[in-house]
Amino acid sequence: MDLDKFKVHGEPLIYGAMVSIALATIGILVGLTYFKKWGYLWREWLTTVDHKKIGVMYILAALLMLFRGGVDAMMMRLQTAAPEMKFLDAQHYNEVFTTHGLIMILFMAMPFIIGLMNVIIPLQIGARDVAFPRLNAVSFWLFFMGAMLLNISFVIGGSPDAGWSAYFPLASLEFSPTVGNNYYSLALQISGIGTLITGVNFIVTILKMRAPGMTLMKMPMFTWSVLITNVIIVFAFPVLTVALALMMFDRLFGSQFFTMANGGMDMLWANLFWVWGHPEVYIVILPAFGIYSEIIATFSKKNLYGYTSMVFSMVIISLLSFLVWAHHFYTMGQGVMVNSFFSITTMAIAVPTGVKIFNWLFTLRKGRITFTTPMLYTLAFIPIFTIGGVTGVMLAMASADYQYHNTMFLVAHFHYVLIPGAVFAVIAGFHYWFPKVFGFRLNERLGKHAFWWIIISFNVTFFPLFFLGLMGMTRRMYTYSEESGFGPLNMLSFAGAVGLAIGFVILVYNIYWSTRYMPRDTTSDPWDGRTLEWATPSPIPAYNFAIVPNVKTRDAFWAAKQDNVPLFEDKITKIHLPNNTGKPFILGVIFFFLGFFLVFSMWIPAIVAGVGVIIMLAAMSFDRDHGFYVPAEEVIATEKKLRGETV
Amino acid sequence: MKIDASKPLEYSTEENSNKIFGFWVFLGAEIPLFATLFTVYFVMVNRFANGPSGKELFEIGPVLIETFLLLTSSFTIGLAIHAMRHGYKKAMMFFMGITLLMGLGFIGIEIDEFFTYVHEGATLQTSGFLSSLFVLLGTHGAHVSFGFLWGAGIMIQLWRQGITPATANKAFIFSLFWHFLDVVWIFIFSFVYLKGLM
Ligand code: HEM
Ligand SMILES: [Cu+2]
User: Fold this and answer.
1) Mutate to test the pocket of ligand 1, among A63, A75, A104 (most ligand atoms within 8 A of CB)
2) Contact B135 A245 (CB under 8 A)
3) A259 within 8 A of A172, measured Cβ to Cβ
């Protein structure tokens, strides 16, 4: 075997990363052994099928990936901070922007949202669990192992370097001869399968497991947004599955899908990628709309304005999201008719989005607004996202796009939509739901400090990029000359990026500080919430609800509090729960090895791992574990304890 | 587990009916998967490079046998489910066994067909057309092979545990999968082979 393939050639940065990864791994292993936490880790986390814990693991992983993607971003901004910088070379810069984009969208934003939805959705619909708890664990481990596979590419064999959209022929074996794009196809494939399973699971959960009385039009807005998102997942991800499989065939087995000779067609990749890729953007943004809707209603103490139009605009956005993909390559030689069609469908999306923005503003109007941290992020989202949307309409005009295409203007635009649209939303949701999961709030003062750092620095980082784009600075350019005049604005942008980093550090410090010092909250309803998740004790017991709620109106918990509509009318009885299982984790590990062996074309080990996958699937099918019952007395005792009554 | 006796066994618990609904949603995802593969095939169908075209390659004989096997097996899996509803375990096992054997026959012929193509110099690497043909047929074939293993696993469980709400549920879901493969095959038969031969 050729060991050279595994080596990444000499760069101090990469050696540094190797050493720090090795040290961190050793540190974790030693720590776990020293504190005797292996058993705890296995029993409570690695084998868990509890949707709340799975959600927490998703969020932890997403925060780690935010850090990784953020370090990539800082490196890029540093490299371009001044003309002729020598910090990264061209190849390394290519790898960094590729993994930055990939990680931020697929391994940070989307998992963060899936994490929140895992924690909250069953609670919001008054259910005891998701429809398929064990499959849920499978989803998580596939996502996690896919993410790990991509992350090791940095030190073993080399990262993908053809951009997160991996356009052919650039991403073909001929022009990207390292294993980087093998990692791309396999890491995304593995985590993508996990995402698809999540999609199926949550569609069934939301449609079939709602509490009695909760009709579709009484569902909380976050639940609605997640339902629509999962429908998009189920229709969009199979396209990615195929695209990645074809990429793998081209790169590993020499097929001719995207080649330039022998009947291949590079544009086929661009089409397949964006047929998935554009809906993917809405997969991360629609749940954000749902989160903001909950937060605005809660902190304005008003019903959400225009509930029905909110739902319909999301449905329309989701349909349109499948009809706009070619706006990503107006300049790649498609006809006028095609460009016009995609131009019009793209601009049409602004209409339902505008409806939503006005609905939020009308909800705020005459509301009793409290400026908590989650609310601040929500309020900041509205104008910033609007800038992103307006520049999006500018980009949507095919003829004008010939001017902006592949410039920093585009980079500014999509960060102006993605960061307020996805990142602020998950941060807001994180602050908002944190007390539900852990039983105490995050510190508001630190939260607001982080908020101001992040909001101001965000604009300092990205607003200059609009001008850089108009000045002609192209995207993915690793350096530029003094005469270009790009220097000062890039320096400003770098300063902003440093501020952003400080903001995120304060945010993480807040988690640490609050865990140690914040008073525990016994009311379980710290924000005076409206929806069912606030009706269970915090932290949430394994079975979620001692008694399944009876829903009569929208915002059922609010109605219960305001108008004394009874929510829990039945008696406490024994509750059925699933047992933990290690199989999903083991399946994930095998998939990781399968992916790794395929990346390096190690066929025999790959076949062994493939057989291992089949054996694990069979083992899961033959499993005759029927779960267990929590006796009624135990439920009553737990409830009393959690609600602060003495037993 | 609450069992609702008014419903067929495979639907009789909440978990069971959720699983069936979930499988329908999953089949909902299989539609865009195969639709994408068909689209890729239609884009590639005339890109022969220097390789052979479908007209030169396809032979109707084996394809008709494949079609016969798969369509009949879709019928026999229906008979198996019918037997299951009446609680006839032996008949059910018999029909499921026949179904799987026909599936195996299908896979055998397909593998033979692939070998013939490669023998005639038509490989995955030859042209865009052949890459898309092999991947489309191969994905369907992989589904049938997976179905064979899956169905065999369910037969073992049926044999050991009898017809219970759990095994009935699995067998029913398997039958949905099998019918779906049949539908996909009809599209392959019409739009790949028949159209290619024309
Ligand atoms: C936290 C601060 C961030 C900074 C400073 C930052 C910076 C950058 C820069 C400088 C580039 C492009 C460089 C180039 O084209 O040469 C870039 C590309 C990109 N960023 Fe970010 N980014 C940040 C956060 C995010 C987030 C949160 C997301 C998504 C949720 C994201 C998604 C992307 C994508 C998709 C690309 C395109 C990658 C490619 O060209 O293949 N970024 N970012
Ligand atoms: Cu798009």
Assistant:
1) A104
2) yes
3) yes
CA distance A132 to A121: 14
CA A458 from chain centre, in angstroms, equals 19
CA distance B3 to A636: 26
pLDDT higher than threshold 80 for residue A517: yes
Atom 35 (ligand 1): residue with closest C-alpha? A101
Say yes or no: CB of residue A77 within 6 Å of ligand 1.
Answer: yes
* Nearest residue, CB atoms, B127 vs list A200, A245, A263: A263
Mapped onto helix, strand or coil, the DSSP state of residue A605 is: helix
Q: Report whether residue A66 contacts ligand 1, using a CB cutoff of 6 Å.
A: no
Whether the CB-CB separation of B125 and A254 falls below 8 Å is answered with: yes
* Ligand 1 binding pocket mutation candidate from A66, A92, A97, A150 (most atoms within 8 A of CB): A97
pTM for the whole thing?
0.95
> Measured from the CB, is residue A476 less than 6 Å from ligand 1?
yes
A473 lines ligand 1 (CB under 6 A): no
Give A281 Cα–ligand 2 centroid separation in angstroms. Answer: 7
Residue A9 has pLDDT above 70, yes or no: no
* Predicted ipTM > 0.90: yes
Residue A100 CB less than 6 A away from ligand 1: yes
For residues A418 and A284, the answer to whether their CB atoms sit within 8 Å is: yes
pLDDT of residue A647: 47
pLDDT in tens, B106-162: 999 999 999 999 999 899 999 999 999 999 999 999 999 999 999 999 999 999 999
Q: Tell me the C-alpha distance between A279 and A324, whole Å.
A: 9
- Residues of chain B with Cβ-Cβ distance to A259 below 8 Å are 128
Please count the residues of chain A.
647
* pLDDT, averaged across chain B: 94
Q: Give the nearest chain B residue to A625 (CA atoms).
A: B166
CA–CA–CA angle A441, A446, A452 (5° rounding): 125
Ligand found nearest the CA of A414: 1
Q: Computed from CA positions of residues A275, A281, A283, A289, in that sequence, does the dihedral angle turn out positive or negative?
A: negative
Measured between CB atoms, does B111 come within 8 Å of chain A?
no
Distance A21 CA to ligand 1 centre (A): 23
Comparing CB atoms, the residue among B33, B124, B154 nearest residue A238 is B33
Which atom from ligand 1 is nearest to the alpha carbon of A102? Answer: 35
Q: Which residue's CA is the nearest one to ligand 1's atom 19?
A: A101
- Sign of torsion, CA A66 A55 A223 A315? positive
User: pLDDT tens digit string along A72-111?
Assistant: 999 999 999 999 998 889 999 999 999 999 999 999 999 9
Residue A1 pLDDT class (50, 70, 90 cuts): low
Q: Can you tell me which atom of ligand 1 is nearest the CA of A475?
A: 15
Return all residues near A169 (Cβ < 8 A) that are at least 6 apart. Answer: A175, A258, A259, A260, A266
**Which phi and psi (to 5°) does residue A455 adopt?**
-65, -45
Q: What's the per-residue H, E or C state across chain B?
A: CCCCCCCCHHHCCHHHHHHHHHHHHHHHHHHHHHHHHHHHHHHHCCCCCCCCCHHHHCCHHHHHHHHHHHHHHHHHHHHHHHHHHCCCHHHHHHHHHHHHHHHHHHHHHHHHHHHHHHHCCCCCCCCHHHHHHHHHHHHHHHHHHHHHHHHHHHHHHHHHHCCCHHHHHHHHHHHHHHHHHHHHHHHHHHHHHHHHHC
pLDDT at residue A570, as a whole number? 84
Q: Which residues surround ligand 2, an ion (CB under 5 A)?
A: A 278
Question: With 80 as the cut, is the pLDDT of residue A38 above it?
Answer: yes
Q: What H or E segment, with its residue span, contains residue A88?
A: none
**B125 with A209: Cβ contact below 8 A:** no
- Neighbouring C-beta atoms of residue A562, cutoff 10 Å: 10
Is the Cβ–Cβ distance between B69 and B46 less than 8 Å? no
